[in-house]
């Protein structure tokens, strides 16, 4: 009996004991569901990618697209050119009208002075009083100067001023009566005028030397 027990124990030792792990059915199902979800998501992404792809244009389609863009740019260019040409013509016409009619207002203002001069000439012809004639001429002169001033025309100061080539034109020189008059204008032959600080006519003067 003892030998049989020993033999059985040796047989049990020689046999390999294999213990299979217990598997939780719920965990296994969850793992399988996650795998299926991942596969479905990959399929959806692949479908989205395939739908988002823009079909490549053929060479003929590209040429048609480029021709349409060129035609559009050409029409816009022609429109701008026509608009600019109209603007240029309008500006040129306005400039010509300004040159042609710009002096009308000035000439219109001179006409009353011309009327006064003609009346003075008639009075002289009729042998009018000399003092009255002189007074009339002074009034005409004052009116004319007032008209010039209203158009920003003013006389240039010359006699007694330092000679300035920007405003004066020396017609001759003359020995200065005193040292302090050297280099100054001692006489004005023809009065000069300026308009808006720009010389309209230089004053012709005699300069002390």
Q: What can you see in these coordinates?
A:
By secondary structure, this protein is α+β, with helices and mostly antiparallel strands. Among the domains are: 82-151, GrpE nucleotide exchange factor, coiled-coil domain (Hemagglutinin Ectodomain, Chain B, Alpha-Beta Complex), CATH 3.90.20; 155-209, Nucleotide Exchange Factor Grpe, Chain A, domain 2. It has helices spanning 2-14, 25-52, 59-101, 104-125, 130-150, and strands at 153-155, 168-174, 185-190, 193-195, 198-201, 203-208. The strands form two sheets. A three-stranded antiparallel β-sheet has the order 1-4-5. A three-stranded mixed β-sheet has the order 2-6-3, with no helix packed on it. A hairpin with a 2-residue loop joins strand 4 (193-195) and strand 5 (198-201). Helix 4 (104-125) packs antiparallel against helix 5 (130-150). The termini are far apart.
Query: How is the biggest beta sheet arranged?
Result: 3 strands, antiparallel
How many beta strands in the DSSP annotation? Answer: 6
The neighbouring-strand order within the major sheet is 1-4-5
Shape field = elongated
Order of helices and strands: HHHHHEEEEEE
Q: What is the helix tally?
A: 5
Instruction: Return the structural class.
Output: alpha+beta
Strand content: 5-15%
Radius of gyration: 56 Å
- Which CATH architecture of the domain at 82-151 would you pick? Alpha-Beta Complex
Helix content: 55-70%
Relevant CATH superfamily of the domain at 82-151 = GrpE nucleotide exchange factor, coiled-coil domain
CATH class of the domain at 82-151: Alpha Beta
Can you tell me the residue ranges where pLDDT is under 50 for at least 5 consecutive residues?
1-6, 11-24
Oligomer: single chain
Distance between the termini: 167 Å
